[in-house]
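Can't paste images in this forum, so I'm doing it all in text. The chain is below; anyone willing to post the predicted structure tokens underneath?
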Amino acid sequence: MDITTAAPAGSLAEQQIRTLPPSFRWGVATSAYQIEGAAFEDGRTASIWDTYCRTPGMVHEGDHGDVACDHYHRMPEDVELIRSLGVDTYRFSVSWPRVQPGGTGPVNVKGLGFYDRLVDELLAKDIAPWVTLYHWDLPQELEDAGGWPVRDTAYRFADYAMLVFDKLQDRVREWTTLNEPWCSAMLGYWEGRQAPGRQHFPDAIHAVHHLLLGHGLATQRMRAAGKPEHEFGITLNMGTATPATDSIEDREAARRADGLGARIYLDPLLRGQYPADIVADLAERKIELPIRDGDLEIIAAPIDVLGVNFYSGHVFSGRDEHGNTRDAEGNPVERQIPQGKPVTAMGWEIVPERFTELLVRLSKDYPGVPMVITENGSAFVDTPDAEDFVEDEGRTDYFRTHIGAVAAARNQGADIRGYFAWSLMDNFEWSYGYDKRFGIVRVDYQTQQRTPKRSALWYRDTIRQVRSGT
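Text version of the structure:
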């Protein structure tokens, strides 16, 4: 289907998008467990997500990634699909238990061979591969040994990273260590809403430190073994934290949300220290970060690019619905307040202006590190027609306004060099199973047929327009 779809030329977002330079990078993104399937083929062993999916009540309708989008078997046609969208970059993640079953020991030749073929296929179609080494699929054996709250996991990650880097570094320039360590630590070890499903706040804080340590160790080793043209970075998911009022309680709630949501990662990575106010907050709860001599220097290993994932921004109150400033455990209240904005199918408010705010803030508070938007997108309830085509006007408008927000931030001085749409195609959406669809390409999970949606065609045409300067 070849349909031309363009945004209204007079819209503010469209005018902003047209200020992006022809050199701006455009991509699509996926992750291994969400699309690959082949969960137990060619030597791959279980990850924490394979286990979590089989824990009753944790994933929507007991869904799992055993087949997902069957990308492992359909990779060449998926790469051709990527090429048809006109993007220049494909960000994908590598499955740790596929490459190194069990999380220790030698490389699995068959597993790593899949990514070797994928890189070659991409390059043959003039698409740059952008590797993410960890997108949440910790080998189950390492979780059994303690997982990310245990220091040894950071060293195991660095070993695994080198197995992949040694094989692909001759053809892959950009390397991201971790995707969204906040999710791994907080959703996985505190809230229990993602794998491994634990609920222990001190473990989550220890996981934060060891995830960052693993990033630093891997970055140091890859840079030492690499070449000057290699670029290394990390991807953080961030929003904005705005106080609901100017009250002390609300301002403190926003400060704490920003501290645990962003600064606890940004400060050690880019300043070599944890934020003092958050360290003090943790001390009040009798929790200490498990820092050893030399850790902060390792974590602050220089990076070449900061990946930014954005989905929404939030307003916070320091009081609960009854006016209390402390919760049942005696901790300060930190409650999100709805802003009255339209929401996606995830219930996330659509606030592109907050995206601009975040990017400008990052450029001012942490100058000198270029940014790439490594994920941005939205889930909506899709209704396919008889040809499986989806007129996803909501998603299309989301992209229009958010890419416009990126352009607006650039025009205010933020050094943003690329934008990758999440996601290439509908896939396994973690605890939501197959109930939520983020793809710009529809996947019929029964037949595995791929059909570009209206948003995909708009994205393709927008890229063409920006490159041509029209």
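The chain has 16 helices and 13 strands. Residues 12-468 form a domain with the TIM Barrel fold (CATH 3.20.20.80).
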